[in-house]
Amino acid sequence: MNTQTDNLKTNKLSNLKPGLKAIVYKIDGSSIFKKRILELGFIYGAEVKVIKRAPLRDPYEYEILGYRIALRKAEAENIYVLPHSAAKHLANNDFSKCKIHKQINNNNIDIANKKNINIALIGNPNTGKTTLFNHVSGSRNKVGNYAGVTIELSTGKYRHKNYTFNICDLPGIYALTDYSYEEQYVQKYLLEEEIDLVINITDASNLARNLYLTMQLASMNFNMVMALNMYDELESKHQTINCQKLSDLLDFPVVPTIADKGNGIEELFDTIILYLKKRNITSFSKHIDYGEEIEKSIESISNSIESSPIINKNYASRFLSIQLLEGDEYIINQLTKRSNNKDVTEIVQHEKDILENNINDDIEAYLINQRYTYIQNIVKQTVKNTKASSSAPKEIDKLLTHPIGGIIVFIFLIWLSFKATFTIGSYPMDWLDTGIGLLSVWIKNTMPPGPLTDLLTDGILGGVGGVIIFLPNILILFCCLSLMEDSGYMARAAFIMDKLMSKIGLHGKAFIPLIMGFGCNVPAIMASRTVENKKDRLKTMFMIPFMSCSARLPVYVLFIAAFFNQHQASILLAIYGTGILLAVGIGIFFNLSSMEMNKVPFIMELPPYRMPGLKNTTLNMWQKASQYLRKMGTTILLASIIIWAMGYFPQQTDYSKDYDKLITITNNNSTLHPEDKASIINDLELSKAEEHLEKSYIGQLGHFISPVLYPLGFDWKMGVSIITGMAAKEIVVGSMGILYQADLDADETSVSLIDKLKNRTYEKGPKSGQKIFTPLTAFSFMVFILLYFPCIAVIAALIKEAGWIRAIATAIFSTMAAWFISLYIYQIGSYFMG
Prior knowledge:
6-stranded mixed beta sheet; alpha+beta; elongated; 34 helices
């Protein structure tokens, strides 16, 4: 620290009011918090500005190094600051020049003979890695304007000038540390896989923060090229970067790119080929000179590593030495696994003891401060402002995160998404239903009566056709979610909701996987990896199945369209709200339980607002459409055929009434009016079909489980639909289309299954003649579908992420919750409604 600042009054960052600036002086708190907050730029001497408080008064939004970050007040209390006027008293360390270490480059490749080049894409979150990957590989991986979109390794190929580049898109990380799942995963991949070159993707408009990871990658001695991405955003801020100067300082090529438009991509790979051709057997790598004492320790540890390797491959010993000094758990674990590395462990501890006596600072904090000091000098030399930038995004942000307006806007946007799902989606839904009805009529008129015709019309069109008509509704909902994600609003929603999330022991970062659950629970469960703390991650995973995924949406659309002519968006919002409330209850329960683990601080980047791109939005919608259609042609088609077959067989002749004789008598009765005769015959045929269905295999199964579901107001056909829906929730609608014998050739202007549900009555029993479905029954059934057994894919994801026991426990608990809550809704509702 600088002794000139010792007599200046320090304050806690949490005490500063919005609009004020200060200078970071000291960081306290847990070692986990200190390391992460330092890596994000809260170093001694850095300028930090308080932007605003969240609508619920916590967390706070801060600006540092040109980007926005959210911290809770509890975390901000561990950051001590000096008045902004203290900046002139701070030491101005000159790291504009770095020491050159002469090393053998172990990653040289013979590019003249090797035509397949392995490339790793690495960068911070929200830098456009996946956008670039999709462009070059032709993939359609999901992209979004918030951290945690890329949660797994993706691979693809790109052919350019007779070379094949095998490209791996790795999760976005801020640093090579053991702080989060993604960072551990990326570090392990870099140290253990065959990599010929690293493309470091950086956000050109936020170079200072991005260069921290770059410095760490450079110390690994990889062949590396930087893609200075989103260069158009930099220019929109009226800034420029001297790429040649930046390349000279970093000692590897720098190429400006705009990945979403494809600009600079060919130049990037041209540069890679040229760069690899120019690499010599012996290369020079620039590294930061950390000072005489640190450098001596690094050299001592490096010599020990080179004589007793920690990692299976001979990577840069300097990088490993620095990681050991910083206490990186992954590297330490690799070290302790090998008994022959005992000497290295002893040397590391010896060097740490020496440094603690010679350096008036925490070793880790000192190293991070030195890196950022060097980075700041690089930025000063390469980034230039041309004129003042516009404040329009700031004005938008004020509205979206306003103490009152922010919450209103959030609720309104969710409601508007549901409203659009029904209002706009109703037109293509009717068109598809009419088309399927006409196709069914054509098949019946063209093909002779028999099992095959029945299979095509009643089985496949009744099942698959009954589900596919809801595709437009799902696409509209995903379009709305994609627009919120791509614009950067989803991260603001997490910022707004953090205070409420804290009441259940989570922070705003967990809100994003929960919101993703509205699209599909499976990727949402995978995205929970972005939650660093294991307890919070498990809690988030258990809550996600109660977020109503798009697979349940066809059920809601069907029943809301049939029984709720008014306030349709509000009813849908109430269904989703029920799942959210139960998820919150689960969170509170786990928070009060004894499952205690180390608490991870709330630190979340708030990405800049961006205009959603038509290409990306269309791509996300196409992904969901293709997934939905694949499910139509596989799972739902197979399920529809099985359900139809179980309802078609066994063929029976022992009917309680001789329907064929009654139909013949009715036809021969000349005293009946033709319309009356047709009505009686139709009723007789329906009764015959109903009795056949009840005696079929699926009817026997339905009647077996009906006692459990009868108190909920469900008949046996609803029970069968519930069982089939365990494979995929869309099958519920397909099953009902088959079991309730939807007349697809009926009135072409109506959704036939809706008409059947409206008019369906009990055939026998104490409720004989009463309608099976009422608004109360429909609401109770929708809540059951919302809550009960997650689909098989979700269970598989839970097994992968949380283990068998937790996955099975989730399935049992959710089904029990569905039964009891639906029972409560139906019985209490019946009491008040008579």
